[in-house]
Amino acid sequence: MKKYSIGIDLGGTKILTALVIRETGEVVAHVKKKTKKEKGSHNIVRKMLASIDELLMSSGKALDEISSVGFGAAGQIDRKNGVIIAAPNLDCYDLNLKEILYEKFNIPVFAGNDVEIAATGEQKFGAGKGCNDFVCVFVGTGVGSSIVKNGKIIYGATGTAGEIGHIIVDLNGRQCACGAHGCLEAYASRSAIEKRIEGALKKGRKSCILDYLEPGKSITSSMIQKSIEREDELVVQCVTEASEYLSGGLASIINFINPELIILGGGLIEASDYFYQKTVKKAKAKSLPVPAEKIQFKKAALGDYSGVVGAAFLEDRGF
C-alpha cells in the first residue's frame, strides 16, 4: 500500500484538499479554495483539479506515491460511479467527478457524501474512535448527517440515509435550497442564520455584525461568534432560533435512532461554543427521558480536517 492518499472536502463554502498519511491520518499539506458555486460547476471542477496540482507541488510528492483520491460532496452521491447526482448547495447536478479526476490523474478515485467522509474521519482518528454506534451532524452552509451503526456507515436503500437537514420541521415553512418547504436546513444552518440577519438588517435592525461585514461579502461563522461575544441582540436572537430548531432535529435522532453518541461539527459548531452548548442542552431536554440520560455529545475532534481525512480512506470501503 502506498503511503499517501488525497482527500477532498467539497462544501458549499470551501473546497479543502489535503495530503494524508494513510497509516496515521495525519494531514501533511492542504490547499483551501472558496467554492463560489455561482460561477458554475465547471469552475468548481477547475478549482478541484488546480488544488490537487498545487498540493502535489507544495508537498513535493509525485502521483506514483499517491494511493487514491477520495472526495466528499454536499449532496446526493452515486458512490459506485462517482457522480454528484444532486447537490443544491453546490448547484451541481449529474456531475461525474470520478471520471474527470481519473482522466486527469490516472489514479483510483472514490466518492462519498460530505458528512459521510467527516464521520469516517472522526471514526478512525477523532471523536468517534472506539465507538461503533453514533451519528455525525455537521452544521455549515447546510445541515447534514451520517449514521454509523455497528461500526459501519448506513447508506439506506438509495444511498441517501442521514439527510437530517431535510426532515420537515414546518409543513408550510421557508423554502429550502432543495426546493421543498420547511426543511430543518432552512432554519438551523449557518446560511439560514445569515438570511435571517440580512433580512432584519434590511428592515432597519441594528447590529454590531456590520462592524465585521464588508460590502458584497457573506456573513461568516466567525462574525456571528464575535457578535455573540458582544451580546448583540439581533444575532443572539437569530442564533437562538436556529438552536431551537436544530435541537429539535437532534432530539428526533435520539428518539428514533437511539445512538450512543452524537458528534457535532462544521463551521458554526467550531466557531460558537454558545451555539453548541445551547443546542446540546435543548436536545437533551426535548428527548425522551431514557435515551436523553444516556446520550453523549462531542464536538468533532479533527475540526476542519474531518472530511479530508475521511475522504482519504474511502478506498478502504471497497467501492
What is the string of SSEs from the N terminus onward?
A: EEEHEEEEHEHEEEHHHHEHHHEH
Percentage beta strand: 15-25%
Distance between the termini: 17 Å
Largest sheet data: 5 strands, mixed
* Annotated CATH homologous superfamily of the largest domain: ATPase, nucleotide binding domain
- Tally of separate domains: 2
Structural class assignment: alpha/beta
User: How many beta-strand segments?
Assistant: 13
What is the mean pLDDT? 93
Unreliable stretches:
none
CATH topology of the largest domain: Nucleotidyltransferase, domain 5
Main sheet: which strands, in order across? 3-2-1-4-8
The Rg value, from CA coordinates, equals 19 Å
Tally of separate helices? 11
- What would you call the shape? globular
Q: Give the C-level CATH assignment of the largest domain.
A: Alpha Beta
Binned, the helix content reads 25-40%
CATH architectural type of the largest domain: 2-Layer Sandwich
